[in-house]
Amino acid sequence: MLFFRSEERLREWCAARGTTPGPAVSMDQLWGLAAQWYGTRLEPSARRPGPAEMREIFAGLGLTGAFWDPQADGF
Amino acid sequence: MDFLTSVKLAIYRHFAESSAAPTPQDIARELGSTPSEIQDAYRQLRANRVLLLERDGVTIRMAPPFSGVPTQHRVTIAGVEYFANCAWDALGIPAALHQSGTVYSRCEQTMEPLDLEVSLNGPGPSSWIFHSLVPAAKWWNDLVFT
Fold first, then answer.
1. C-alpha distance from B93 to closest chain A C-alpha (Å)
2. How far is B96 from A68, CA to CA, in rounded Å?
3. Residue of B nearest to A25 (CA)
4. Does the predicted TM-score (pTM) go above 0.80?
5. What digits encode the pLDDT tens for the residues A30-51?
6. Which side of chain A, N or C, has fewer Cβ within a 10 Å radius?
């Protein structure tokens, strides 16, 4: 999981490795992931989201499709 | 609170305060337990996907978002430098600590440095992007690669 300056730089990086880029995620979306995933991590009740919760978090940030499905079997 | 939760919270407190991974001895001292009991708890937390351990089974490699080893993703908060496991976790550290900070990383293609201020409400406007090569269903197959 890496940072890139732009989608063009991401495409260059993937082309050099013969791989297809996955979804590009904006910094606002990434903050949404970080805050929802880790915002309660230091609290006693904290736990890792289950598959349904993960889908809900991703979908709430506009991250949909098989790539973001934690139980997808198409990969 | 059950013992496993106490161990988990002690691990996270240690990372938050020192930025370093605690040894089983560190946690045993804090909880008045034995290193052997703490090692068992580490293994259970690994099974629960809370921790990633080194091959020795007792050294914490990851307690996401914190990394037990230096990485290219650094975060400074209140004068403390933390290492994150990945780009996602770099923003996860200020989110977990509920403090503003600065994320230092790079563009993986050009090596251009990233210097990103993160407030309690997240980063300011930025055209940088985040990318995962691995789909969600496979993240834990090889978490270091992910």
1. 8
2. 22
3. B130
4. yes
5. 999 999 999 999 998 888 788 8
6. C
